[in-house]
Amino acid sequence: xxxxxxxxxxxxxxxxxxxxxxxxxxxADVLIIEREKQLGGxxxxxxxxxxGLTRFGESFSGPEYSQRFIDEAAALGIDAMxxxxxxxxxxxxxxxxxxxxGLKRIQxxxxxxxxxxxxxxxxxxxxxxxxxxxxYTAGVAQSYxxxxxxxxxxxxxxxxxxxxxxxxxxxxxxxxxxxxxxxxVLPYPSGLPRNIEQCLNDYDIxxxxxxxVINIVGDKRIEGVEVAQVDARMNPISGTNRYFPCDTLILSxxxxxxxxxxxxxxxxxxxxxxxxxxxxxxxxSVPGVxxxxxxxxxxxxxxxxxxxxxxxxxxxxxxIREGELPACGIALTPSPEIGHIIPQKISGTRDFQLSLxxxxxxxxxxxxxxxxxREIKSVSLPKAIPAEMIQFAVSCEKISSGEPxxxxxxxx
Amino acid sequence: xxxxxxxxxxxxxxxxxxxxxxxxxxxxRICVLEKELDVCNxxxxxxxxxxxxxxxxxxxxxxxxxxxxxxxxxxxxxRELDVPFRRCxxxxxxxxxxxxxxxxxxxxxxxxxxxxxxxxxxxDEIKEIEPNADGDFAIFIPSAGILCPFTYTIALAENxxxxxxxxxxxxxxxxxxxxxxxxxxxxxxxxxxxxxWAINCSGLSSYQISPMLGFDxxxxxxxxxxxxxxxxxxxxxxxxxxxxTPNEYGAFDVHVTPTIEGxxxxxPTIENIGTELxxxxxxxxxxxxxxxxxxxxxxxxxxxxxxNYVGIFPTAExxxxxxxxxxxxQTKPSVxxxxxxxxxxxxxxxxxxxxxxxVVAKVKEQELLIVNKTFNPVRKGIVxxxxxxxxxxxxxxxxxxxxxxxxxxxxxxxxxxxxxAIHNVLGVCTIxxxxxxxxxxxxxxxxxxxxxxxTAMLQDELRxxxxxxxxxxxxxxxFTGKVK
Lengths: 412, 484
Hints:
The complex is a heterodimer of chains A (412) and B (484).
Chain A: E1 2-9, H1 13-24, E2 30-33, E3 49-51, E4 60-61, H2 62-75, E5 79-81, E6 85-89, E7 94-99, E8 102-113, E9 117-119, H3 122-125, E10 135-137, H4 138-147, E11 150-151, E12 155-159, H5 163-174, E13 178-183, H6 193-200, E14 207-208, E15 211-217, E16 224-229, E17 242-245, E18 248-251, E19 255-257, H7 260-264, E20 289-291, H8 302-311, H9 313-322, E21 330-334, E22 338-342, E23 345-346, E24 352-358, E25 365-371, E26 374-381, E27 390-394, E28 405-411
Parallel strand pairs in A: 1-2, 1-8, 2-5, 8-20, 10-18, 12-13, 12-18, 13-14, 21-28
Antiparallel strand pairs in A: 3-4, 6-7, 7-8, 9-19, 15-16, 16-17, 21-23, 22-24, 24-27, 25-26, 25-28
Chain B: E1 4-10, H1 14-23, E2 30-33, E3 50-51, H2 62-72, H3 74-81, E4 85-86, E5 90-94, H4 96-113, E6 119-122, H5 123-129, E7 137-141, E8 145-147, H6 149-162, E9 166-168, E10 175-178, E11 184-188, E12 191-200, H7 206-213, E13 220-230, H8 232-235, E14 242-244, E15 255-258, E16 264-267, E17 271-274, H9 283-296, E18 305-316, E19 328-332, E20 335-342, H10 348-366, H11 390-399, E21 406-408, E22 413-414, H12 415-422, H13 431-438, H14 451-462, E23 481-482
Parallel strand pairs in B: 1-2, 1-12, 2-9, 5-14, 12-20
Antiparallel strand pairs in B: 3-8, 4-8, 5-7, 6-7, 10-11, 11-12, 13-16, 13-17, 13-18, 15-16, 19-20, 21-22
């Protein structure tokens, strides 16, 4: 069986960034496995700009951003198998890959999970109504338009205010389609404020908050949607129904980390992130299996994906050299107001980066990391919204016991 | 229409395709007229996928007889037609005294119907058979099984086509006339089909075709059933169908059934809808499925929802008594060379071939059929890469590199399989046609990954324009054109 120091599953922004950093740390034998014909992941279809402001201080399109990493990986001589799909990952890190020249089995010393995420579908939401053509998730519509030069429709309704849906509202408008409205079931947008501004407000596309599509109409092609206002428990309010004729319904209703391979390897998942439980090194519950990027938790910006993937390289390199990493016995848990946190456990002997999202928008607030009665870190913010990931470094200096740590948010 | 046919079968569902296949054993020019763009788009594709045992209907009914016959022979049928199926058994569970009494009534009927191996079991044995099932008592029916209704219908149709039957899609029958020489002139969407025989296998439309052929008029009574499909992650917890005790009207409320591919079906709900043909899912029934399903099987969770669908069962009532009719396989002296099938609903999937053989017998009553010596009962399906051992997968890829390209990640379907599906023997060229033949886009991402590949390949392989790509039916276009 072929052996590799590191196999990276997925050649998108997370996989590429991890590969480059590992190579720079003198891990010679790095292999990226990518199912598409080219590296770059979902960024290949993200032809809009705004990528890289944090990581590079410059604004790039998706393909430009990923090309930076692809070029660097090539210059470093990193091996990449493209058009090759990992179909199994065993707990002892044997990677099974289907490729055009056969089925390969590769024994890896370490595995980096960088598979990204998939879009939540109509079926998962169980939206009532008929099942005509013309219903697309935002990412699929984006792929059709930007990679296949294919127009999916002309009279568009968008359900959900996720970032890809907002980006697609603008894209459809620029290509001559008519975007009638965006409906968001929550009382606040799911996407970033800058996208609300640049993709909806700049084009006079109305955003209806606390509204949901409650019925899909059309036998062949979709003909329209029934929409209603919803109450605080997200139940439709009777008498608020309105019918919007359309030939296309775009869904931008959430992303789900794609962890089927992780489950096959026995990696434990966190119900909050739908990604792996990881420690400060981004190591999962299976020793030597690491995770970064959207497969771990859904990010708002690709820059943070790259940074997260880069940050795990040092520990992954240490694991490859020494065969183990320090035990992480201190649990980190979020308070109910916080949706999720990464990592979920730490050693207490190293500084670490904390990532989190709040569950609901809050104004001026303080995020507090506490072990028992002891405050370990606090960060004051002018506001916090679910659309934006919050990240800060936590020093291990004040961690003095194995007691669990809680992360809370206080509005002030 | 390519001359004159000996037999025209109206309807390409599981019944029409089984009849076509059984008649292709004889020297006959046969056509199947289907109003949709593929087989199994009506009743045949919208059900629970169960190989019924025959316990659910009264002794002496044709449906009971056909069901038992179809159940008993299915190993051989599955082998001949390359249809995956599993005789997994089934549990009908009861809670409390009232249900136990009804369950015992059902058990006595099972004994009377001669259902092989049925047993009344208690709580402990329920848990032994399926730890995720619950109940005070249950009937265990070892002969029940599960199969994929799409695969089975497609297999019957493909086998019929291999043996000379011609399928015409997008041909809705609008009228039937009889010429002076006794030939049927069947008016359909694209023109008139001329045939010596006409056989009505049109499922939901059979009540309309029946008087056109010269048989009785029936009042359609339709029952709408909604289902939820669960992720294979839930399927790992369910080895056999679990039914509740029939309610006081003898109907089964929501049940849970594993599919042959490893998903779980929750449903159907039961709604009487009269004549309306509405396949829309409703919020009310989505909620009912969640609540009722959860009582039978703890894995009925929102996180596992993949998709929902609606099935509509045709029932026909006796014009005199208004009771639901048994399966009707009718001939009539005043209407020679016609067979009229009415009231074929559950267990129609299990009964398809037994019904078809009875149709053949009816034809033989009126004319001598000459055996088709070249008839081949064996049909091979598309090899499923995902179902093979690793060594076998490797061997296939080395023979054909297209097996090394995974197009549908959730169901692990390869480019080679998609290509074979696109060039299917029936000439079906819709997205759903590929889906039913390969399972591509049937998984948890619902085509998020593979759909762009499927549509691109359809365009390339069949030289179609973007605007010609259809989801499943005429008018269900996928694209409006190019971006630029």
